[in-house]
Write a structure and sequence with these properties.
This protein is an alpha+beta fold. 40% of the residues lie in helices and 33% in strands. Helix 1 runs antiparallel to helix 2.
Length: 144
Amino acid sequence: MCEHRWAPARGLVALGWVLAGAALAWFLVLLLGAADPAGRLIAGVAALGLGYASLVGTVARPRLALHAHGLVVRSLTRTRSVDWPAVQRVRVLRTRRFGRETSLLELDLLVGGEERLVVLGRLDLGADPEDVAEVVRPYLPSRS
């Protein structure tokens, strides 16, 4: 049974689909109206980018889930389950972008003998990464 889960906000995902549809309509208008290639490129990239982000927000739900035995991380193409002993480290990376401080949750995982880094932001989790890290850390086995 899932004890905690985090996913993108449903309203944000719905807004993404609306904006993707609007960008696609914009692209089609420019395409049928024989607009300049740069405008068509911008509209097409916007439609693809918004559509991809909305698809990930729809399909990969929840992005992170905690269970008694470990955690589950979902992406568009796969679901990765990891037992707690394989979670090497959980930390919050704080960066300053565009004059604003942002936080990212970093999970260092040992999967099949290989190290994997999973990075999730506020949009992925639908919550502050620092708050999520505080919930995840007590589950980690103590390392001596």
